Amino acid sequence: MQLYGINLNILMRFNISVFIIFFFVLPKMIFGQLFFRIEGDITVKEKSEFQSQLTIGKFYYDKNIGKVVYNISFPEKQVMVSKDTVLYQFVNGELKSRTRTFNMAQFSIFNLSLNNQLINYGFEESFYSIDNVEKDGELVITTWMPEKNKRKFFGKVMISTKNKRLHGIVFYNARGELAGKQFFEDYTVIKGLPFPMKIVKINYIGDIKTYQITTFENIQLNNLNETYFYDYPLPVN
Fold first, then answer.
1. Is the separation of the CB atoms in 99 and 111 below 8 Å?
2. Domains recognised in the chain with CATH numbers
3. Using an 8 Å Cβ cutoff, are 34 and 81 in contact?
4. What are the CA-CA distances from residue 99 to residues 10, 85, 104, 109, 175 (Å)?
């Protein structure tokens, strides 16, 4: 049937397509962009051949503020705040130490998850670029290489994904030696946001191997009732 030179069957199919986009696809895209806060319980178990340590607390991150805040309850009460390239330690509300470090917030699992960059661990916005992609069973393994002028200090990184989710990362130093591994496990979906509830990290320092197992519980998104820890006050100078 024609109306003003337009095939109504084609128009109806077009309208159905538009309906699907607006009511099924776009809401998910927009909804995914609305996540800006994440918090939850965190437990970190560290172990080497020399010692072991257990840390328990809560974490808070607001991507608009850019602070990763850990309110630690065990083994001793303290608050650790990472902002830009500084790590702050507070005990009983007083600043105890201030340490220069890399931008921990930018490459934290919290920031990467909220910005939908976890699958490549944020490397697409770094000085690394893709060198090779291969498939090994259910895994897709992507090799990332640093820019040539930085290969004196940084080595390649291999990132594996499984079912379109980050599975593991293998780090090498500039000499091509294995430096560390991370595995992301026990994914759960919170309001449409996939998040790994367990991270296993293995570091290699010479012949010494250390393990760090981080688990999360009670994850909340966009909690507007909690404001103090999300923007924990830092010293002006």
1. no
2. 10-221 (2.50.20.10)
3. no
4. 64, 8, 12, 21, 27
Q: How far is CA 233 from CA 65, 81, 94, 95, in A?
A: 11, 9, 11, 10
What CA–CA distance (Å, rounded) separates 223 from 52?
Answer: 34
Q: Are 224 and 55 a contacting pair, CB within 8 Å?
A: no
Q: How many residues does the chain have?
A: 237
Instruction: Using the structure block, give the residue that is written with the tokens 């591994």.
Output: 181
Give the pLDDT score at 33. 54
In sequence order, what E strands does the chain have?
A: 2-3, 6-7, 37-47, 52-62, 67-74, 78-83, 86-91, 94-100, 128-136, 139-146, 157-162, 165-172, 178-190, 193-205, 208-221
Which of 173, 164, 115, 119 minimizes the C-alpha distance to 139? 164
pLDDT tens for each residue of 61-94: 999 999 999 999 999 999 999 999 999 999 999 9
Q: pLDDT, tens digit, for every residue of 171-198?
A: 999 999 999 999 999 999 999 999 999 9
pLDDT at 157 over 50: yes
| Spatial distance between the Cα atoms of 16 and 18, rounded to a whole number of angstroms | 5
Could you tell me which residue, 162 or 1, shows the higher pLDDT? 162
Q: For residues 30 and 198, what is the distance between their CA atoms, to the nearest angstrom?
A: 27
